[in-house]
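Researcher: Structure for this, please.
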Amino acid sequence: MKIFVSLMLWLLLGSVSAKESTDCQQTFPQDIYAALREMTASLVQLKADMRFLQTQEQAAQQKTEVDKLKQQLQVQQVAFSAALLTSGDTTIGPFPTATTLIYKHVTTNIGNAYNPNTGMFTAPVRGVYHFEWSVAAKGDNSHGSGAWLVKNTQNVFMAYEYEAYGFMSSSKAVALLLEVGDVVFVRLVAEGSNVAYDDKSHHTTFSGHLLFPM
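Model: Predicted structure, token format:
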């Protein structure tokens, strides 16, 4: 009896398994083809998304590089030139202490590194700069005309002239390595009763420009 029951169960399971196998053979190709089509469509969309993202990333990188180049170009464009007076004529000094000359008549100020309110040039970028300055006066047998170029608190070079009579002027030039934020200005010498004269011809001047960044 047990053998008969076992045999019937085995035949029943075998028949179910055979039916499932037949059904699986009938549905499997359709399922796999549908899955492959979905995968192919997904891969195509993924490639399209990746190309779009790569294009966006390249555009962003190019914009960043262009912005950097523009910024570097703007920083490297530094030049100024100024004279003491905007109009009229006057003699400045002498003073009991060294006094910063403030050049009001600004003809060029590319980069706005020179401040006509303080007379000071502030380095916007680390680099080597070239400066020129001149001082002039009318000789009266009692005053000279001298001015220091100053870097921060350091007297660098002096332009000086003394004439008993007539008109006198002196000029100097220097190249300086400056760090960002260093200031350069011209200071009238106190010792020796120095003066500076200027008029519409602009004899007393201060100029500078960036030679190259470092």
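Researcher: Any notable elements?
Model: Helices lie at 2-76. The CA atoms of residues 55 and 94 lie 67 Å apart.
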